[in-house]
Amino acid sequence: MIELRKAICKVKIYTDEDSIHPEKGTGFFISENLILTSNHVIEKSKGQIEISKCYNNENVLTANIVDNCTECDYALLELNEEYKSEFILELCDSEIIEEENIRIFGYPNDAQGQDVGENLVGTITMKTEDDAESVQDIILNINNFASNTKYSAFSGSPVINEYDQVTSILKYQGVRNLSSVSVKKAIAFLTKNDIEVKPDQLQTLDVYNEKVFVGFGNKQGECEVESKTPLKEINPQTIIEKNRGKLFYPEKTHKIEELIKFLRISKNLNSQLWKGWIQLLTYVEILKGNYKNPNNISIHISSNEMYKKFGLIKTSRSVNMEIYLNFYFTEEESYLEIARKLIHENKKGGLSKNMCNIFNSNVDDFGNINNIKEDISNPTGSGPSIQNYKIGRLSLSQLNRAVKSSTQLEKVSDNLKKIFEDAIK
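The chain above was modelled as a monomer; its predicted structure follows.
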């Protein structure tokens, strides 16, 4: 978790040229010398804008207005002095999810608040419809909110999500809540001023592409290179839309909005889910498989089978086999139990193709055991003209282990093919 207060500063302006009537607010650093705040905090300024409480600096600094916008109530300030902030906050063009946890730090307009600042925590209550009469578009439920408390100088404070990203800026105090203006609503203003805004977590897997292959030894760099193509072609939004409730086992709701909400408020699970997808898609890329449709991923392997001719076992043959991969995240603890249960369900429904169920989990070393084989066909069937569909099961831990144990990239492909071949024999 970032040290939020170190990126926050106090903003003060005077509404008269004699500097008698001050107005106060809060701002935050988005680069070494650029500060974002609310436009209504600084729009009546008749003189210098004072900046104070910058981390590791006791002086009162000054700033000038680079740009401001009444439509989104954002203002961009630049310091006049040489101070460079070590702590910078990241903006995110995030979809607004009800009940998502948020936190805020600012300098409210009372003696203690102006001196040391104050933390607020709460959740997003709702996103409002576009309204010509109000700029704010997010309603916030603040824990222990008190209508008789002056939150006014909190204006300009960043609203932070659980990924330590700014998703809105605090603007207004109502009778029962606070409200803010989303980064999404201000995107035109931010883009105009060349301010970097990270995409929503649903728009790219790159958000989760950190330390995915740490611990893979000399395979780490090779896997990171192989992951670049699927990272460009597939994003979480597509995966959710194609798989819906089948992202999980047991299945969850098929309503996309509810799935997104569940993932957003389950940070650790969400991270493990998408890191698992990065690993799986990387392995399919290494195997030159097809993942264009993340609900219809397939690979090709060769499998040796024994077959009968005239009732006698003749010999083995090499069969080129296409396997469709089903990738599930589970919160269950017993890999064997859920793997057998799903196999039973697959059998009961009947098979129309070769399948392998793969399980990911946030339980350490989940399913990190030797291969378990499940064959619903007759491997010694009565000849090559009869199609025998097979089903297997693996855990992501087993695939990771196969990759880690490989001595070179060619061996990664061989080991992955072998583990799939063993799983569906």
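Residues 4-79 form a domain with the Thrombin, subunit H fold (CATH 2.40.10.10).
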